[in-house]
Amino acid sequence: MAKPLWLVAAAGWVFASAAMGAQTNPPGSLGAPTYGIWGFDLAGRDLAVKPGDDFAAYATGDALAAMSIPPDKSRWGAFGILADLSQKRVRAILEEAAASTTAAPGSEEAKLGAFYRAYMDEAKVETLGVVPLDRDLAPIRTAPSRAALARLLGQTTAGFGDSLFALSVAPDSNDPTRYVVTLGQGGLGMPDRDYYLLEAFAAKKAGYQAYVARVLSLAGWPDAAACAADIVDFESRVAQASWTRADRRDPKTTYNPMSPEELEGLAPGFDWRDFFAAAGLGRERHLVVREKSAVQRIAAIYAVTPLATLRAWAAFHVADEAAPVLPKRFVDARFAFRDKALTGTPEEPDRWKRAVDEVGGLRTGMGDAVGKIYVARYFPPSSKAQMEKLVEDLRRSLAARIQASDWMEPSTKAAALAKLARYKIMIGYTEEWRDYAHLTIRADDLYGDAKRARAANWAFDIHHLGRPVDRNEWGMTPQTVNAYNNPRMVEVVFPAAILQPPFFDPHADPAINYGGIGAVIGHEMTHGFDDQGRRFDAMGRLRDWWTASDAAKFQAKAKAYGAEYAAYDTGLGLHINPRLTMGENIADLGGLNMAIDAYHASLDGKEAPVLAGYSGDQRLFLGWAQIWESKERPDAVRQQIASDPHSPDHYRAITPERNIDLWYEAFDVQPGQALFIAPPDRVRIW
After folding, report:
1. Residue 594 pLDDT > 70
2. pLDDT tens digit sequence for 477-495
3. Predicted pLDDT at 30
4. What is each CA distance from 642 to 193, 379, 532, 633, in whole angstroms?
5. Quick one: which of 477, 484, 481 has its CA closest to 360?
6. Does residue 408 sit within a domain?
7. What is the pLDDT of residue 389?
8. Domain tally for the chain?
9. Is the peptide bond preceding residue 502 cis, with omega within 30 degrees of 0?
10. Measured between alpha carbons, how far is 169 from 158 in angstroms, rounded to an integer?
């Protein structure tokens, strides 16, 4: 294959006003980017590369060569450009709210304005110094016992800090009509257990220890350097006890229902009653433990670790999470490790960008309050209607593919079709916005605002307990450039911010839209039938609805497909772990296949026009490659391969079509070319 242009040096890249040749909007514009005259950037191709040698380079190679990663980013491309646009749009919303003289006191607009003003008032933050942080650290400093500290760890759910055990509220996999408290492993300050255990990350581990010492020193914690060494040693033992990310993907082994008493029997080294009571969960009688053996081992580690080390560990994690709303010395220290050292990002983002992320976040701020305004301004009803039609095209496509499958038993097909029919497709924005009436926001108290917002969002979560599952609730804001599948809810969600070029353009050639957002919709639908999603039935219950023969065939196909990803040389001495990325890989293949079928059906028997010498099929594949056009800094790729279930974008752009006969026909891909796979070896799943 051609040299992977998606991988760049860790430094020396500067922001260009037109980061992609196709982005014709002026700097600062709040309009969606444009790509050529019919949705594809013809000028971005590298025609010196054969499609069969590196399809990504052929489709976007010249654009990639001209692309520069902004200095405050670890990666850049189609997703990054839209995220940047969304960030600018939210900034405009927040600055208007901050400047408003007519907002009613206590209204959402007034609160948004006050929150944003508080974040942007850096002088006030500097004046307050560490006083707000000290109030949170004081009880940690004096915690007299592990039981007392467990109570403080429980309180982190509604504020700053971390716990050794991750808590969440979600539909029960065995009965998705009700909510349940889920408990899992936690406690690590680096992206993954591998960062503690593998020699390849030794330098990052040393950098982490230096960062821990720096934060503790800034917080006024005694013997910061010695405590940092103890903390990293403690977290290394927790890492050794923790499950790998690949193992954590199994929905069956991570479903272990038990009562609080049974949890106490399983893991007696931790004060569970105090922990749950402090988290507002003292009355819960039903839990689901995810990584059962890890929870047991981590509780045992907690029981024998010196109290002084546990106090220092808790203090560090409070200060680390709170750093963005603390004085600049904390902000700079956090950036130097978490962004510069871990991902190679050269420069810290402007303060307004960090303010937008905090205030507009679903978990950290008032994301739905921003989302209401965002949708009214930037997501017209016509786009929603066009998307809903496209969704139904994709649903019919997947149904036909299931019915035509030559490897599934009739009973499994019937169950799959029943599940597909029940899918709820949510487009653009929620119909039930969160209520922030009880959230107190003050323009002179950034630390308090951020902490109260976290508390309000945790209160929102635990308020679900004991109530029927709300099938209208969203787990993302409309201004988020992403999408998701929720297997327990049997739903897929597409926020407004991703429904823009190059993913979706109401004025683009339909083939480009099908290769872009069509394949993304298909991707999310396919998640219901990937190696994890296939374990959930039409009602969202964790249940084996496959025949043994079908399951074995599926696993063999998935293994063969994973081997294609594992064989790639990333140029960093690392290979993609198909056990970690399998679900996303399968979803990409299924999504692209669905998009092809849906596009063909949309032609209603007519021939697609030829544009710039490209057939409709060729344009669809070009649209697919265009959405994955990106560059990443090497350390960002290393972190992604270690901790992210998504393969790097370059490999997402080139791998699914290697298994689709139509791609070979469309671009005359021949044996001997780098991406060629012989027909019998092409993987066909969905």
Report:
1. yes
2. 999 999 999 999 999 999 9
3. 87
4. 9, 36, 19, 15
5. 477
6. yes
7. 87
8. 2
9. yes
10. 13
Q: Which two tokens stand for residue 67?
A: 């692309």
Average pLDDT, integer, range 386-392: 88
Q: What is the pLDDT of residues 658-668, one digit of tens each?
A: 999 999 999 99
Token code pair at residue 496: 């407004």
Residue 75, helix vs strand vs coil: strand
Strand, helix or coil for residue 575: coil
Contacts of 178 (CB under 8 A, 6+ apart): 171, 172, 468, 469
- The H-assigned helical ranges of 323-380 are 328-334, 342-343, 351-359, 367-378
Contact at 8 Å (CB) between 586 and 532? no
- One-letter amino acid for residue 370 of the chain: V
Task: Give pLDDT, residue 309.
Answer: 98
How far is it, in rounded angstroms, from Cα 660 to Cα 55? 13
Q: Are residues 317 and 398 in the same domain?
A: no
Final residue in a domain of this structure, among 309, 326, 343: 326
Q: In whole angstroms, what is the distance from residue 523 CA to residue 521 CA?
A: 5
- Tell me what pLDDT residue 25 has: 60
pLDDT > 50? residue 579: yes
- Cα gap 178→169, rounded to integer Å: 10
- Domain co-membership, 298 together with 390: no
Domain that holds residue 288: 130-326
CA distance 229 to 254: 32
Residue 408 and residue 416 in contact, taking contact as beta carbons nearer than 8 Å: yes
Q: Where are the beta strands (DSSP E) in 165-204?
A: 165-171, 179-185
Q: Distance (Å, rounded) from C-alpha 144 to C-alpha 166? A: 23
Q: In sequence order, what are the residues at sequence separation of 6 or more whose Cβ sits closer than 8 angstroms to the Cβ of residue 383?
A: 428, 496, 499, 504, 506
CA dist 161 and 318 (Å) reads 4
**Does residue 262 sit in the same domain as residue 390?**
no
- How many whole angstroms separate alpha carbon 23 and alpha carbon 200? 38
Q: Is the Cα dihedral 556, 491, 646, 523 positive or negative?
A: positive
DSSP annotation of 605 reads: T
Domain membership of residue 457 (yes or no) is no
Q: At what angle do helices 519-526 and 616-627 cross, to 10 degrees?
A: 70
Residues 70, 347: Cα–Cα separation, whole Å:
9
Instruction: Say whether 143 sits in a helix, a strand or coil.
Output: coil
Residues 477 and 583 in one domain: yes
Looking at the chain, the whole-number percentage of residues with pLDDT higher than 90 is 92
Asked if the structure places residue 463 within a domain, the reply is: no
Helix, strand, or coil here: 478?
coil
Same domain, 384 and 280: no
Q: Is residue 345 domain-resident?
A: no
How many other CB atoms are found less than 10 A from the CB of residue 613? 7
Residues 6+ apart with CB under 8 A from 247: 253, 291
User: Tokens for 649?
Assistant: 């974008």
Which residues are within 8 A (CB) of 72 and not within 5 positions of it... i.e. 6 or more apart?
A: 345, 346, 347, 348, 349, 350, 353
Asked whether the predicted pLDDT for residue 195 surpasses 60, the reply is: yes
Outline where DSSP puts E strands in 234-354. 256-258, 287-289
Which CATH number characterizes residue 275's domain? 1.10.1380.10
Do the beta carbons of residue 490 and residue 540 sit within 8 Å?
A: yes
- In sequence order, what are the residues at sequence separation of 6 or more whose Cβ sits closer than 8 angstroms to the Cβ of residue 606? none
* Alpha carbon distance 513, 226 (integer Å): 56
Q: Tokens standing for 630? A: 């990106």
Please, what is the average pLDDT of the chain?
94
Number of neighbouring beta carbons within 10 Å of residue 539: 14
